[in-house]
TrEMBL record:
Main enzyme class: transferase
UniProt family annotation: Belongs to the PEP-utilizing enzyme family.
Subcellular location(s) per record: Cytoplasm
Binding residues annotated for Mg(2+), in chain numbering: E430, D454
Reactions this protein catalyses: L-histidyl-[protein] + phosphoenolpyruvate = N(pros)-phospho-L-histidyl-[protein] + pyruvate
GO terms for MF: kinase activity; metal ion binding; phosphoenolpyruvate-protein phosphotransferase activity
Keyword terms, alphabetized: Coiled coil, Cytoplasm, Kinase, Magnesium, Metal-binding, Phosphotransferase system, Pyruvate, Sugar transport, Transferase, Transport
GO BP: phosphoenolpyruvate-dependent sugar phosphotransferase system
Protein name in UniProt: Phosphoenolpyruvate-protein phosphotransferase
The EC number(s) this enzyme carries: 2.7.3.9
Domain PEP-utilising enzyme mobile: 151-224
GO cellular component: cytoplasm
Domain Phosphotransferase system enzyme I N-terminal: 2-124
């Protein structure tokens, strides 16, 4: 059992992706071992060089030369005296084994990078790790570059999956499902899986140890169920479920063009959340009326260098044009936290969720921010753009971000670069501080979009990456409901639209509550749109308001959940499936997730 993180049923053979950090063995050498150790090092360097050359050739053939240049830089690094000579010196002078020496030298080189003020060069630290890991794996005789060989229709099983790994594999179209030991409902890996409509079960304990390569795995990403080598009987139950899921998808798609309007005429706009351009057709097919959240930081995931202004511009232009005049809400980079540039870890902050992420990261990396803002301003010519800033905690941050935007607008104007008309500039409300001063923020923001993944994380003090506290993740906690009410009231008083784009928006269990609260828009992944719409179209807002009133008179999250569930049952005779579990409060305390 684990946490159902992306709906759908899949059956396939297990592909175990071993991404655990390699443990560097540490040995002291006898004098006679020194020379052979130097030879071992040389062999590992030669082998690494051959592997990189081969990889470079493959990538040049399939993807062009941009990525290949990075690999060429890695090859140069392999032969850099700063690395090789220093490793040999440690082997000879300190009599330590090659793996240990490589790790020590890599650490030292990374420290040098730390002190470079330029963001781009600082990020090269990840390349040092990449090269060092390759040498160490080769010294230890381990397999490298296995990520390129996911077999078709595989169930990828891993201890943990970085958002980049999940994104790249899901994009390859060869993955039938994901199972990971770590992770929670709102970790970005789960979000990527949902966006790609790939079933996923996360927080599955020790699945990656208990499942062997090639095992037949049947998984249900709605209920969080995993069966290894199931019997014929169990398999036929899964196949039946798979058939039912596909049938309900088919029916849901038929409602694509109907508006989300309650029986007494309250209209909510249903938008789509997206990370990749490839998701647009699926969003449109499921009836998205616009884009409520484009997580632009995902552009950084499969690469080690920041996208250029031109690349940003092309992506934004493409989504604006593809949406054909429908509103497209583009969020500026939400880097930091569990989303870090490059494949390896960012300089580790003691508490990344409360560290330099999102708007803070952009305001302290101005060039990176300006590159994106310039591209957005230029792209605004091509459609109905709405811009929003993530993790705004106070009015000063909003003012600073807006003034940066205006400075870019002026500079482009002076340079004669075409820029579109003024577009709405809003904020994500995802911290209790923003919620508490929503009335003031509403004076200076053109719209609000509530990010409940973070709002719940920060208000209930539960790390969204940590399985141990996943059971405390309660969107119906009275404090969350009160915060939501405060935000909506402030938005309504200032006459600005209020949307929600956190995961809570796409879970049908909460639909009536959100309808009652008075959201103007909800934004979710494509598969969730038809389901949420179905519930909205079957109730009256007056009735939903009654339900909310009753809920807010109760006290504990358990009481409120039980009440909402019973009331939904009474109205619909079918309780909406909760993606996490049938009883949110009953989720077993899960284990830690350490990486993003
Ligand atoms: C949120 O916090 O709810 C949100 C939508 O942003 P993200 O999940 O990207 O942090
Ligand atoms: Mg957020």
């Amino acid at each position: 059992m684990g946490i159902g993180a992306s709906p759908g049923v899949a059956v396939g053979h297990a592909f175990i992706l071993d991404r655990k950090r390699i443990r560097t063995p540490k040995l002291r050498l006898a004098e006679a071992e020194v020379e052979p150790e130097r030879m071992r090092m040389k062999t590992a360097i030669d082998l690494s060089d051959r592997q990189l050359a081969e990889l470079k050739e493959q990538i040049t053939r399939t993807e062009g030369s941009d990525h290949a240049l990075i690999l060429e830089a890695h090859r140069l690094m392999l032969h850099d005296p700063m690395l090789v000579d220093e490793v040999n010196r440690l082997i000879v002078d300190d009599r330590i084994n090659a793996e240990w020496a490589v790790r020590r030298v890599a650490r030292k080189i990374k420290h040098l990078f730390d002190n470079i003020p330029d963001e781009y060069f600082r990020e090269r630290r990840s390349d040092v790790d990449y090269v060092a890991d390759r040498i160490i794996r080769n010294l230890m005789g381990q397999v490298v570059d296995e990520e390129v060989e996911v077999p078709a229709e595989a169930i990828v099983v891993a201890h943990d999956l970085s958002p980049a790994d999940a994104a790249l594999m899901a994009r390859s179209g060869r993955v039938a499902g994901f199972v990971t030991d770590l992770g929670g409902q709102t970790s970005h890996t789960a979000i990527v899986a949902r966006a790609r409509e790939t079933p996923a079960v996360v927080g599955a304990g020790r699945a990656s140890e208990q499942i062997s390569p090639g095992d037949l795995v049947a998984m249900d990403g709605t209920r969080g169920v995993i069966l290894v080598n199931p019997s014929e009987e169990q398999l036929s139950v899964f196949r039946e479920e798979q058939r039912r899921y596909q049938e309900s998808e088919r029916l849901a798609l038929m409602t694509k063009d109907q508006p989300a309007v309650s029986t007494d005429g309250y209209r909510i706009r249903l938008n789509g959340n997206m990370e990749f351009l490839e998701e647009i057709p699926s969003l449109l097919a499921h009836g998205a009326e616009g884009i409520g959240l484009y997580r632009t930081e995902f552009m950084f995931l499969d690469r080690k260098t920041a996208p250029t202004e031109e690349e940003h511009y092309r992506a934004y232009r493409q989504v604006l044009e593809a949406m054909g005049g429908r509103p497209v809400t583009i969020r500026t980079l939400d880097l930091g936290g569990d989303k870090v540039p490059g494949k390896t870890k960012h300089e580790k902050e003691p508490n990344p969720a409360m560290g330099l992420r999102a708007i803070r990261y952009c305001l302290s990396n101005r060039e990176l921010f300006r590159t994106q803002l310039r591209a957005l301003l230029r792209a605004s010519v091509h459609g109905n753009l709405r811009l929003m800033f993530p993790l705004i905690c106070g009015v000063s941050e909003l003012r600073e971000a807006r003034s940066e935007l205006e400075a870019c607008r002026t500079a482009l104007g002076r340079a004669g670069v075409p820029v579109g008309k003024r577009f709405p500039v809003g904020i994500m409300v995802e911290t209790p501080s923003a919620a508490m001063i929503a009335d003031r923020l509403a004076q200076e923001a053109d719209f609000f979009s509530v990010g409940t993944n973070d709002l719940i994380q920060y208000s209930l003090a539960i790390d969204r990456q940590n399985r141990e506290v996943a059971y405390l993740y309660r969107p119906l906690h009275l404090s969350v409901l009160r915060l939501l009410q405060t935000i909506i009231d402030a938005g309504k008083a200032a006459n600005i639209p209020v949307s929600m784009c956190g995961e809570m928006a796409g879970d049908p269990l909460y639909t009536l509550v959100l309808l009652a609260l008075g959201f103007d828009e909800l934004s979710m992944t494509s598969g969730q749109i038809p389901v949420v719409k179905r519930f909205i179209r079957r109730v009256s807002r007056t009735d939903a308001v009654e339900l909310l009133k009753g809920a807010m008179e109760l006290t504990t999250a358990e009481e409120i959940e039980r009440y909402v569930r019973t009331e939904m049952d009474r109205r619909f005779s079918e309780t909406p499936e909760h993606p996490e579990s049938s009883e949110p409060g009953q989720e077993p305390p899960p284990s830690d997730r350490t990486t993003g």
